């Protein structure tokens, strides 16, 4: 990955986390890893909802929208990591898989939130 792409990815994750925190979510983990799986952000909303977030940052939508770049394999790995973290936390509440699409604009980074994006 080029340095520019890495910087956009990191800025995108930071913007996504800030966006969700501003919406009342609590950040539990950033870059949570389990085996080959990585979850960009793990958020909690209250005591009843755990949200696993994939952040997709793209420099433009020229080649498609960021939210369309999550493959079936990525979703499988994401679910494995989510199951592992639920066991670690002894989580009995609901879970959700979200995608946050981040694209640069003249005003800064635009964040779009897609709830329950895997189903």
From TrEMBL:
<comment type="similarity">
    <text>Belongs to the UPF0102 family.</text>
</comment>
<protein>
    <recommendedName>
        <fullName>UPF0102 protein MUN86_01520</fullName>
    </recommendedName>
</protein>
<dbReference type="InterPro" id="IPR011335">
    <property type="entry name" value="Restrct_endonuc-II-like"/>
</dbReference>
<dbReference type="InterPro" id="IPR003509">
    <property type="entry name" value="UPF0102_YraN-like"/>
</dbReference>
<dbReference type="Pfam" id="PF02021">
    <property type="entry name" value="UPF0102"/>
</dbReference>
<dbReference type="InterPro" id="IPR011856">
    <property type="entry name" value="tRNA_endonuc-like_dom_sf"/>
</dbReference>
């Amino acid at each position: 990955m080029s340095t520019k792409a890495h910087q956009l990815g990191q800025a995108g994750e930071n913007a996504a986390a800030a966006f969700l925190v501003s919406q009342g979510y609590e950040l539990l983990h950033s870059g949570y890893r389990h085996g080959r799986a990585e979850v960009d952000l793990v958020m909690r909303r209250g005591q009843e909802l755990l949200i696993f977030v994939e952040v997709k940052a793209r420099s433009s939508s020229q080649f498609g929208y960021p939210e369309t770049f999550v493959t079936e394999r990525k979703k499988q790995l994401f679910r494995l990591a989510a199951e592992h973290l639920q066991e670690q936390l002894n989580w009995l509440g609901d879970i959700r898989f979200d995608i946050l699409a981040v694209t640069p604009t003249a005003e800064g980074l635009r964040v779009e939130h897609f709830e329950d994006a895997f189903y």
